[in-house]
Design a protein that fits this description.
Strand order of the largest sheet: 3-4-5
Strand content: 15-25%
Shape: globular
Structural class: alpha+beta
Number of helices: 3
Length: about 140
């Protein structure tokens, strides 16, 4: 988002699963208009970078696919363990940036403002996202 730009007061989310549209007023409009495409691009990169069974689920934003309230809409990272257990964690675009860099073998992750931060500073978060630490 450009400095000084405000998020729109109304935004339309189109579900990637069912194709239906959900209208949001104020809440989540910044994410839908400015961050959702980045999240999708990062999700594709994460999935193609690993043999792990990982899914980034945005269906909580869809009022047709989910019973979640607008306040509860979020991205979910689902990791299926080798035992078949599915671990779910709410994720942000920042989490996806870190995870993408980690799975590509990088030592640093790049922020939205192009700062480079060592991944080791966020090792605990990465462990939780991948189900390698107690939730």
């Amino acid at each position: 988002m450009l400095p000084g730009c405000r998020a729109p007061s109304v935004s339309e989310y189109t579900c990637t699963v069912c194709g239906e549209k959900t209208i949001y007023h104020n809440m989540h409009t910044r994410f839908i208009e400015y961050e959702l495409e980045t999240a999708r691009r990062l999700a594709d990169s994460i999935i193609s970078s690993t043999d792990l069974m990982i899914e980034v689920d945005e269906s909580l934003y869809c009022s047709f696919c989910s019973d979640a309230s607008a306040e509860d809409a979020c991205l979910m990272l689902r990791v299926t363990t080798s035992e078949g257990e599915v671990l779910s964690n709410e994720v942000s675009v920042t989490d996806l940036r870190m995870l993408d860099s980690f799975l590509r073998g990088e030592l640093f992750w790049v922020t939205a403002t192009d700062d480079r931060i060592p991944l080791k500073d966020n090792a605990d978060r990465l462990r939780r996202l991948l189900g390698l630490a107690e939730q």
